[in-house]
Amino acid sequence: MYKEIGKLKVAQTLCEFIEEEALNGVGVDKGSFWKGFEQIVEEFAGRNKSLLEERKRLQKIIDDWHEKNEPFDPGRYQSFLKEIGYVEDEVEDFTISTSGVDSEIANQSGPQLVVPLDNARFALNAANARWGSLYDALYGTDVIGGESGEGPTAGYNPVRGNKVIEYSKAFLDEVIPLKGAQHRQVVQYSLSDGSLSAKLSDGSNTSLINPEAFIGYQGDAADPHTWLFKNYGIHIELKIDRDDPIGSTDEAGVKDILLEAALTTIMDCEDAVAAVDTEDKLKIYRNWLGLMQGTLSASFEKEGKRITRVLAADREYQSANGDPFSLKGRSLLLVRNVGHLMTSEAVMTANGEEVPEGIIDAVVTSLIAMHSFDEKSAYGNSAEKSIYIVKPKMHGSKEVAFTNDLFDRVEDLLGLPRHTIKMGVMDEERRTSLNLKNCIFEARERIVFINTGFLDRTGDEIHTAMKAGAMIRKNDMKTANWLQAYERSNVLQGLLAGFRQRAQIGKGMWAMPDQMKAMLEQKINQPLSGASTAWVPSPTAATLHAMHFHQVNVQEIQLHITGNRSELRTQMQEVPLSDHVWSDKEIQEELENNIQGILGYVVRWIDQGIGCSKVPDIHGTGLMEDRATLRISSQHLANWLMHGVCTEEQITGMLKKMAKVVDEQNIQDPNYRRIGDNYDNSLAFKAAHELIFSGAEQPNGYTEPILHYWRKEAKKEYAKTGVLK
Ligand SMILES: CC(=O)SCCNC(=O)CCNC(=O)[C@H](O)C(C)(C)COP(=O)(O)OP(=O)(O)OC[C@H]1O[C@@H](n2cnc3c(N)ncnc32)[C@H](O)[C@@H]1OP(=O)(O)O
Ligand SMILES: O=CC(=O)O
Ligand SMILES: [Mg+2]
Questions:
Q1: Ligand 2 centre distance from Cα of residue 113 (Å)
Q2: What integer pLDDT is reported at residue 320 of this predicted model?
Q3: What range(s) does the Malate synthase N-terminal domain occupy (predicted)?
Q4: What is the value of ipTM here, to two decimals?
Q5: Most ligand 2 atoms within 8 A of CB, residue of 429, 457, 623 to mutate
Q6: Please, which of 95, 111, 154, 299 could form a disulfide with 498 given CB 3.0 to 4.6 Å?
Q7: Is 336 a catalytic residue?
Q8: How close is the Cα of 426 to the center of ligand 3, in Å?
């Protein structure tokens, strides 16, 4: 049901949501809102379409070039990309001038959590992941090994617990060291003349090597129960409780160590969700509204208990000299809008065309964010009263300029001061990486981050050169020259544009949510490379990754980053082709792995509307799969198929084989629809099939059009029959 408002047709439910909930109390009247919205659609919908046409035009020219230019000649290729405007002429040097940026983004370095915004339980957990228990994160993951009785057991395992304590105190020795002693020797922490004094087991006293690291406490000054430390701009709480089951076994009464973890969280409306219609969009918008008003809650059963989760309060302390102060209890929230590709039925033009979804997201998520400015909001989000929108999947600087202009108009519509809406630019398409300087320039007054979304970026790498030849194996992409150059070039470009202490330079997702030991070993390389933030898939990962930001002084590292931009740009244009002749076993492995990932992800997307899942690979390692990883797998298979590395029959056979494996993996899920004996009917199976076999023709290799189509079919089927085929 639609309501005609001026020249727009707005879904009745969206209209009611906007008028009764989103516009309520923000000082924008509904008449001018709809009038302004209509003008924005008139001004931007056509321009959006032209940008998509330009993507198509360039891809066609590139495809034709590859068909005519065999063998591939890198020198000629680079001149060609420049000639066709794919590589842009660069603007003069400049520095960004974004103002009103919260300290979590401008001054602090730490993990960035991402969470699907359609899941209120997860979203609340993410917002509260500003602080995380190091003891829980270590105890609950593989960081502590399973040797000599240290493994997890049904109840509390004191051997494992002791390992956790040992590990955590060694971490304290590293980041807030004591003079001539270790934290495990302490029997009592106390306040002495405004400083921390530590009494050791031999009866002597010591203090911190860097006394300024101690900045406050909670509890009675004579015996505080919480000690607050600051190191490289982020905080650590040492919790004391001698009556606690853990604290009572600890000589100093330490019951836990809390780390400031997810400084920022991206509430995702894009690749981690499955939103195909107005109903889905409304669920997302309502959760965002609840977060901005501070009232969101989620009730659920966990381990036999009913839990209601709400947003965490700020944390109150006394400084060493007794002055009260507080720290934020919640992550600073950013919202990732969708990109420029898709349109939504939620708003239609008078001639029956769907409006670009990115335009609707920009207007509605900004409007909703205004609720966090309201005094009545239970918890404000941005101390600077800024709105943070992350914009994904933009190709080149004209698309960034489009978003920048759109944000200007949204600010005018909502009566917000210019550049209230900040922009995070995902550097995740090849045309953006190669023209990053120009892209940043277009958003220079509102940009707050660039982030290497290497997953989408890999999908785009494959699709752009689809016709050039067979690509290297998927896992080899991570070490390929183009990717290394892209990661370095992003940091360098951000620093040259003045991002240090103004904006985030972010790095991509750790996509193995259960492999925390490996994460601790490898993800330190991201801050070491100059990134002030990096993505994590869960609050636990945020807590553990926070340790890296205590070990690495990112702001100091950023002062010493150098590199040759033009060399990096040349390397980025190296196409990851391979002339290797793979053995049957290698081909089999690659197909199994990609197809298992595709099916495992798609079946939950299509049948259950879940946009981000943990799916085991062929070695049984759970991998975070979202639309970007799906893009890689489907594009990779389409590429190998196109160049004869594998046949249609091999892929079809493997789809059937893996369908049975995926059924087994989901055996515990009561909502799961089997696909292994249902190939001809399963809509999810059809979607997976199409993603591979029509992969080469998909716009920039994106998976959205096919996923949306089949999910809508599944919803229709469900509405009609109450079950899925
Ligand atoms: C390329 C890109 O665009 S990457 C960006 C998109 N990716 C993401 O957003 C990743 C988000 N992460 C997730 O959705 C999940 O962590 C998954 C799907 C990877 C794994 O989910 P699950 O298998 O359900 O996780 P698992 O069972 O280990 O843990 C669930 C618990 O962790 C919490 N949790 C897991 N991930 C998150 C998260 N991102 N934010 C908040 N809480 C989370 C859940 O709230 C739940 O705890 P609860 O029972 O107290 O509510
Ligand atoms: O959005 C992130 C990515 O890697 O893609
Ligand atoms: Mg992405």
A1: 13
A2: 86
A3: 16-68
A4: 0.99
A5: 457
A6: 95
A7: yes
A8: 7
